[in-house]
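User: My instructor asked us to take a sequence, write out its structure as tokens, and then describe one feature of it. I'm not sure where to start. Here is the sequence I was given:
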Amino acid sequence: MADQAWTLGTLPASDGYTLRFRKYESANPKGPVIAFNHGIQSHGGWYDRGCRYFADAGFTNYFFDRRGSGLNESDRGHARSHFQLMDDLRASLAMVRREHPGSPLILAAISWGGKLAVATLADHPQLAEGLILVAPGFVPQVHPPMSDQLRIALAGPFRPRRKLPVPLSDPALFTPHREGQQLIAQDPLSIREASARLLFCSRLLDFRLRRVARRITHPTLLVLASMDRIIHNAQTRAFVGGFASKDVEIVELEGGHTLEFEPDPTPYYETLRRWIDRRFLSRNG
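Assistant: Let's start with the prediction itself. The structure tokens for your sequence are:
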């Protein structure tokens, strides 16, 4: 894009895969830093407007595309294990930590990325000072049809690269607004088919979360969308209520699952900015 606001970065994963990310630099090098990760179908390009907002607000932010998605062209829609995905996120956060020593680091996870974020922070709590969960995919309303669930169970271990549809083919699930729906429908980087192994990894993450979510002690902001058609809001509130953290704030905003696509997403951006200001900016002057 002509007015690109980000720089491209790369990070070698533990297995040699090259992970790509967008970095949005702010004018405040010592302020809080946000690390974003995305859902199963999306990528960092969906969230450019918000990342620009946060950089202008004084928060350097990084948007990490999951391996096989977005800017990462190799092995599209595939991951060999949920442990590898967790290790990718661990390495990404460790890199940000090295780049910004002394700055509070907030992990902001969107949709399916919330599962990966909680599983990773439960094992490595030192990687971030705060956690933001935006419509996290802990309790989905949308599931693969039973026939695909059987294929996932059988092919995940034995035919790991078999491609199956991601059960989110209707852009209206993400947003009720036509402009956002058109962007999703026309986006060449969206993951519409995923390998059986990646979908199997998602199920394994579900089982893991039931055991480890209670370990989360970080200050946490949960942002829900009032018209969400992808996740169950009430059950998600209850799930986050099981965290060990004594500092959990829950906000429900008007809009569809992907609040970024609201005609005016400013209330969403402001919710995150004010929470970071209250929790982290004041203590850093």
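For the description part of your assignment, you could build on this observation: The mean pLDDT is 94. Try explaining in your own words what that tells you about the chain.
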